[in-house]
Amino acid sequence: MEIRERPAARSLPEAAEILGIPPSGIVKTLVVKRSDDTYLFALIPGDRAISWPKLRAVVGVNKLQLPDPDLAFAATGYERGTIVPLGSANDWPIYADSGIVGRRIAMGAGAHGYSLFVEADDLIATYGATVADISQPLE
Residues near 110 by Cβ (< 8 Å), separated by ≥ 6? Predict the structure, then answer.
């Protein structure tokens, strides 16, 4: 695992450019709220979007949503754009898109201006993440 300081970025593509990697090399950690007010993390490659039907099928629920920024902060202890499962305020289940398997990825590092680099397979194994096809091309 490596934490790298970088200039602040206004978007994921800008962060990728600063880091010298393609947008697909950055993995977004999305906090997803279930209808019972519990949460999960979805790890999605930066060049893709979450596929709600696919994620609902894997999780086995009919309704999921992105919480507002305040709820996401309360659920994780991190602001949007910095969220990472490591060190989160709560140990929510992790669902990793199959597209990250076998790759070294960059992701949020818990604070603006930093990126965390990690082997996706190590992250998946350490947290017992569920790996599935849960993304779709960006629209």
Answer: 78, 82, 83, 84, 86, 87, 116
Q: Which amino acid would we find at residue 78?
A: Y
| Residue 74, amino acid | A
Query: pLDDT (tens digit, 0 to 9) for every residue of the chain, 139 residues total?
Result: 999 999 988 899 999 999 999 999 999 999 999 999 999 999 999 999 999 999 999 999 999 999 999 999 999 999 988 999 998 988 999 999 999 999 999 999 999 999 999 999 999 999 999 999 999 999 7
Strands (E), the chain: 2-5, 27-34, 39-45, 48-50, 64-65, 94-97, 104-108, 114-119, 130-132, 135-137
Who's near 92: CB < 8 A, 6+ residues apart?
Answer: 31, 38, 39, 40, 41, 75, 76, 85
Contact call for residues 113 and 79 (beta carbons, < 8 A): no
